[in-house]
Every structure is written in structure tokens, then in C-alpha cells.
Write a structure and sequence with these properties.
By secondary structure, the protein is α+β, with helices and mostly antiparallel strands. The protein contains five helices and nine strands; from the N terminus they run H-H-E-E-E-E-H-H-E-E-E-E-E-H. Helix content is 29%, strand content 23%. The protein starts with a helix and ends in a 5-residue tail after the last helix. 13% of the residues are buried.
């Protein structure tokens, strides 16, 4: 959220406008950034389990930088395939390079991604959600397989991505 605000001040425009100009339009995406109260056409309703049934939930807090992007599966595929056209190779490599603490201890976090796996099967994963939703993207860094899960059930088991990867590429760790 802080970085989004810094970009707004430096760029003298709303984060939604900056993101649209620099990322969404160049990739042909129609993703909506909810940065102020408004309705989003054809938006999926989110749900959570309630007893033996389901309860519709929605929490439209217009905060940007850490979420509030409403994207279709088609848009996320465009983003995944186009990421290399937005960033130079060095920046793209840094995006998926795990960090190291000042103490020298390595960790699996890399600029918003968790990096898992062995050489030849490295996967960058990011998941999230909001009231009534659960999302995941698992991006194969060495093999090109990307699995995207969008659910309007906030309790959805996002580990489904791992099970899909195992079926798609037998022998993955």
C-alpha cells in the first residue's frame, strides 16, 4: 500500500491510472482496480460457508497496492505471458530470486512470491483473497507451466494447484 502511495505522489496520478497505463493496457487487460466505491460489471459474488449452506459476502474497501484488483482468468493469463515484455530480463530474474537475511540465512520469499522446488522444477507461488474469494498463481520458472486458481469460496483449498501440477507433470517433487 505504501509503494502504491509513493507511486501516486511521484507520478501525480492515481495508482489505478498508473497501473492501467503501464501494465493493463499494454497487455490488453481489462482488469479493474477498485480504488474508490463503484460497481464492477459482471463481478462474481464471493461466498463463505455458513452452517450447512453458503453466505454471500462482500467487503468493498477501496484500498490499493495490496489487492483490490478484479481480474478474469483471461487477464491473468495475459499478465503471466506478458510479464517478460514489461520487465527487462535482469528485473524479471530479480523478481523471482529468493532473498537472504543480513545474518546470511536464506529464505524462500522473493518480492511477493514464495519460491519452492528443486532445480528444474522451481515454482513461484502467490496466493491471497478477500472476503468471499481465494486466489492462487503457481508459475513454473523452469518449465513454463502456470496454474491459476480463482475461487469465489474464501475457504477454497488452494493446494489444488500442487495436485494439478503433479498430474500435469509427473515426477515433480
Amino acid at each position: 500500500m505504501l509503494l502504491a502511495r509513493v507511486l501516486e505522489v511521484a507520478g501525480k496520478r492515481r495508482f489505478a491510472e498508473l497501473l492501467a497505463a503501464e501494465v493493463l493496457r499494454p497487455l490488453g487487460m481489462t482488469t479493474v482496480v477498485l480504488d474508490r466505491a463503484r460497481s464492477i460489471p459482471a463481478r462474481a459474488q464471493g461466498y463463505q460457508r455458513s452452517g450447512r449452506g453458503w453466505k454471500a459476502v462482500r467487503d468493498d474497501v477501496p484500498v490499493t497496492g495490496d489487492g483490490n484488483l478484479f481480474a478474469s482468468l483471461d487477464d491473468l493469463v495475459r499478465w503471466d505471458r506478458g510479464l517478460g515484455t514489461l520487465l527487462p530480463p535482469a528485473a524479471l530474474g530479480a523478481l523471482f530470486t529468493p532473498g537472504q537475511l543480513d545474518s546470511g540465512v536464506a529464505h524462500d520469499y522473493a518480492l511477493g512470491w514464495t519460491i519452492n522446488g528443486e532445480l528444474g522444477h522451481r515454482v513461484a507461488e502467490h496466493s491471497g483473497g478477500w472476503t468471499g474469494t481465494a486466489t492462487s498463481i503457481a508459475r513454473g520458472l523452469d518449465d513454463g507451466l502456470t496454474i491459476i486458481i480463482l475461487s469465489n469460496d474464501e475457504g477454497f483449498d488452494l493446494e489444488l494447484a500442487d495436485r494439478i501440477a503433479a498430474v500435469m507433470q509427473p515426477g515433480l517433487p
